[in-house]
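Supplementary Text 2. Reproducibility record for the structural model of the 286-residue chain.

All settings were left at their defaults, and a single model was retained for analysis rather than an ensemble. We include the record here because the model underlies the residue-level annotations in Supplementary Table 4.
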Amino acid sequence: MSGFNDLVSKKLPNPTPSQRRVIEYIIDQYDEVIFLPASRVAVNAGVSEATLVRVAQYLGFSGYPEMQRMLRKGLQERLSTISRLEKTIEHVENEGDVLTMVIQEDINNLKETLRDIPVEDFSLVVDKIVYARKIYVIGLLQAHAPALVLASALRSLREDVYLLDGRLDDWDIIAGVNSEDLVIGISIPRYTRLTIEIVEYAHKNNANTVAITDSALSPLSNYVECFLPVKRRLNSYIESFTAALSLVNAIVTAVSLKNPQETLKVLKKREALWKEKELFIRMNKH
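Retained model, structure tokens:
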């Protein structure tokens, strides 16, 4: 589905409600769509067949059949991975099997995330962080984990980094946001309302906005100049944030390398303070 998501992001970034229904249906019922005629897909998506055909044309295809061929090709490329995963799931009998299954899924999430993130978009996000006056990071519930790592790591390199965590004073903290500032929203399905509202507010106040999310259909994509897509598939009741955390590690590393001499200066100062305050325990050497 990465190729389809890329097309949507580039050629149909602001779909109408009927176009969105088509796109969401294709993504949600991918394995079914590749075999169904246009008339049936349109009925199932709740739109006219003409709307379905126009969506295909907006995405650069001559019509629905050509788009369907691309989707079938994408499925063929995924079959070996899916077959292995399904085989693993069928034979889950103990904790060791679960361990293998989850780590295999996260390895796939990492590979697909690396494949799907445009390098130029990654570089743009790094530059926005480097040149922002203030940085606000928001990620709630499970998304709070990568948000916390990102904000904490950036605070080690610079001042004026704020982590929003869903408290009542979040709106007070972000009230003065302007065009010199950057707001980073992190959210994947199911999307948290406050994260979207904060990023939307920042966008309306001309702040720079970026997102770490799953696809062009994310509501965050409507309010950001750039988003970095992460994969999050996991056969569990929770979503996987492994790819998001790895992306955060890449972002802060790239930021630190933008001005290595300044980074070393700041980190040495912080290390001295941590040592003075005995922030970390000392391990006895034998």
